[in-house]
User: Fold these one by one.
Assistant:
Number 1:
Amino acid sequence: MEAIREDKLYTYEDYYSWDDDKRWELIDGIAYAMAPAASPTHQTILVNIVARIFNFLVGKACKVYPAPFDVRLNPDGMDDTVVQPDITVICDETKIDARGCKGAPDMAIEILSPSSNRHDRVRKFELYQRYGVQEYWIVDPETKTVQKHILENGRYNFGIYTEMDEVTVHTLNGCIIKLSDVFE
């Protein structure tokens, strides 16, 4: 995923005004076009994860949002960074407004695709770490693995899990996801 609109730096207000029916992300003011549609495998994995988190959160304060859902990581600064994680978990309701999330969510999950691999593993990893996303999962449909990153002292520590594992969601006390159900 390469930058498409590099002619100038953009803000969230610019991004919000675009009406070209394309999905975009802004990272430090640079616009990146997102793939037009995800594969059936990607969407199946997304639905499987969202369903498990959603069911766990019934009656709890935290909420789960699948993409497209805008996350403005620095709304109090330049407001030049907005991403659309595949899955977002937010436990602080004051961060939710009519346009999405203002500030770092508690958890972001990205499901890799050939066009997003480097973007998710490098750009978004650095971005989520910098802005304080407490838990970041990178889900790889090809290898049927999950890299789980937990923020500690400003840096991510991680573990890798396979489809035979159960993964504890760090930010949701008591939530455990069986990966064989995710990669069915």
Note: The domain at 38-182 is CATH 3.90.1570.10 (tt1808, chain A).
Number 2:
Amino acid sequence: MRSVLAGAGLVLFLLVSGLVAQQATASRYLVTWVGDADGADSDFLAVLDVAPGSKTFGQTLNTVPAGERGTVPHHTEHDFTPGHPLFANGFAGNRTFRFDLHDPLHPALLGAVSAVPGLAFPHTFTRLPNGNILATMQARGPDLEPPGGLAEFRDDGTAVRWASAVNDVDPGARPYSLVVLPAEDRVIVSTGRMQRPAGFAAASALDHPGFTIQLWRLSDLRLLKTVALVAPPGSRANIERNPYELRRTGAGEIFLSTGSGGLYRLSGLEADTFQAELVFDFGSGAYLPVVVGRYWIQAVSALRRVVALDVSNPKKPFEISRVQFDERQAPHWLALDESSHRIVVANASAESEARLWMLRMDPTSGLLSVDDTFHDPGNDRRPGVSFEREQWPHGKTGRGVPHGSVFIQ
């Protein structure tokens, strides 16, 4: 009996030690880029306490208005780089803002990013080894007409170089997301189309859901190859449409999820070998993913779920777990806290509930679960933090719609 109790004590000690270690290393803050729902007041950046065990866990600690309204806050950078500002785009307003987060409790607006000659509507941002930001640009001008391109920005918001995505395969290419491969001197770009904001007339016949991926050279931003995605016989109709998010796994595999629910494996980093193969069907539109070890975790908005795939065999991924949400949710944005393997979930649009959820992810088993400790103060019965509120630190501006979010240590 003594040995059994000793063994149980050891297990308990290890569990408690693991929890303490997680709390010690977990990110302290989450910053979320928020749209004012009725467009009457400024869009803003919110800072939440996400430190496990904190007395203010789940609470909004501060906000900073962007000074503009109706921009429809969309993507921020996916990861925060200390010592640099955070870039955040208000897509409908063709505006990208920079925020100083060196003191997360007192965020500061640094101003907007400058215009790029011949390109407009930034979408996705990735930090380069030189500290600059490389951004996808969805259009060539303020009327939202394609093609778009790529642009590199300094921290002060000035553009240092840019290039068009014009090509012979799809003249209407709209760069959407990207994965930067510095060691290989390559950038891979997807060309899905953003939803056309209200107030923009339909463009020409060039304006369509994307269907291509592009291979670029990083050193001189030269477009090397544009390849059309192909759906094999028997696939769901249009599964290749709207190629959205690209990520590279720790094993070096590159995958692409489409807005129509396909998962493609990409290979070949030369113009004559660059290709993509459909390897999984999520069943409906797939939006932002995060990667933890051998697991690809995907938001599947229309089906109201977040799904974890095991991609250790990159040609045959399989589902390992999922979290299913209720009918008011439409999971879209995911952000990973690498130190604690927590994942924040934001809904797709103003039509969904204005709410942030937190998931836990077991990096060994791949199992996903809802973190029910992340909830509004005084309401421990329903997980998640609501943005359906009137009062914020910057004033009584009403319901906010959170989207791009990122953890900060």
Note: DSSP finds one helix and 31 strands in the chain.
Number 3:
Amino acid sequence: MQPLVNLDIAKALTLFAEGHHGEGFAIIEAAAQAGDAEAIFTLGDLYWRGLSVVQDHVRARTLFAQASDAGHPIARRAYTNLLASGITGGRDWPGAIARLREEARSDTRRAQMLALIEAMPLTPSGFVSTPPKGQLIHSQPDITYFQGLFTPPECDFLIAVAEPTYTTSMVVLDVGRDGHTPMRTSSDAPMHWLIEDPAIHALNRRLAAASGTRYEQGEPLLILRYRPGQEYKKHFDALPGVENQRIKTALVYLNDDFDGGETAFTQIGINIRGKKGDGIVFTNTIDGKRHDPLAEHAGLPVTAGTKYLASRWIRAARHGQKFD
């Protein structure tokens, strides 16, 4: 990479910070056309997030692939992730795993992902070979309990991946509007599409199999952290005024060395506190559109220790992205 290009990228980012997006974008685009890996990756990131340009995930994926070929390490991992999931383009699980093997040679976290995947019961195409079996513990709402849905190493991996990225949890206040309220005091870390690595992708496919749905119906996996005193007061996961409703919720308890923090179904009098790796899947609606009043639930306050939970909301139809 040429030092002059490095200076140009730094200048472009300064212009962005000062609000001069058009000037900054022009510099980055020119450097990308000159073949600079950092500029190509940055341009892809701008298209992915829709900054200074119309958001275009397909274009962003192409740029990430180009930056990967040019030797950009973050782009290399991002493109492997997208190749594994098929988000915004073709899915090539064997190709993604081959890339992951190469990345694992010099990256401890990628090596950890590879070890987890190699221990999973997957088909050569990365699908769940044996659907998880659960026990129905209640109907209307349907609540199914799965022992050992995730393994202890898988739970530890999710906790470790999420740790640097927690922010204060929000709730949906209205259609398209989220905000902070005292009813939800936890922190969360979304495993959004770009950072959904192959191991997390495989776990999301397991959640889809456990819930009897397709992977494409799920929102990004959310890792929740509850410290002493934190809670999520009684609420519904179904959303008001949306066409593609959250029909189901999947929860996996990532640890059990804490006190309190039960999942309480307040209208039917059932409290659940799973062991590490256990999960539940429950329905949120009556007809796929209207919320079920009996599905009201709460995350009770943690009284000691820290509770970690993986959550995935599942929609009635495909959600959020273009899939192959």
Note: The chain has two domains: 3-118, 135-315.
Number 4:
Amino acid sequence: MNRRALVNSCFQYGQQLTLTDADYQGCVNDLLHWMAAYDDVEDDWTTTTLNLYQPITAVIQAKQGGIVCGIEEVLFYLGKYSEIAVQHHVKDGSAVEKGTLLLTLRLPMNRLLSLERIMLNVIGRMSGIATQTQRLVALAKTIPDCPAIAATRKTPWMLLDKKAVYCGGGLTHRLQLSHAILIKDNHLFALGQQLGKPSAEAIVQKAVELAVTVKSLGCVEIEVESVEQARAALNSYRTAVEKNPDAPTMIVLLDNFTPSEVTRFIGEVRTDPLYNRVLFEGSGDIREETLPTWATTGVDVVSLGALTHSTKNFNVSMVMS
């Protein structure tokens, strides 16, 4: 398996983020139910006071170009209301221009006004994430040997944010804590306390030793904060592979390294036979403007919390006719 295929097998789970999947449907249902409950959509005093119950047709349209996402989720939620007829004009992941019609709705005015903000919030946030992701993925494709773009767990809307990254062409990373082993700094600290506070390198070695024994996992990942820890992880993994050639793929997350540090380290290990069984991820304040620098480091993946924790909403609006 080539490295890019290995990256996809370890980092891409977007194909699971569909409403035919029970976990994803549950996440969508719970989030939108929470939105509706705390917006009190069944008790809209304004529309009741003004007696706004007449039938109406409305459209939701894009007010900018980009990648649309959230259509499937809105359709799922509107399906709970028998009085709503809705037609979708685009699918999630579609590239649209300013003015593109996304949905046409026919429904009572009171229902439209009570649900308007939920619909626009869902499409706005998810399309914003998808659009930003697509921009970075497109930039990466212009750079030779650029690493793949992945999300992190900094996802206020959980699986919906991950789906939006997928619609933009990015990698989802793991979807849930039960999905994969990812040993981070706090895990290592806790393990070190348990082991009697040995050296940082010894803690990393023990963590890798334990992780690779878990059956049925295709990949395990460990976060390291120094070259010495990275070497310790590889040495422990080498021992594991010698004992068990079917050990899972190892991912080394190089956290808060400088691009030059990463370049030197990966340069060291490229000629190691173990290199073909190990993937390298860069993370830590990686942004659009620094992506070209990271492209030359040799990492296979860069993960950006900014894809989901500080994205700009996609500009979308509703127009009545």
Note: Residues 105 and 246 are 54 Å apart (CA to CA).
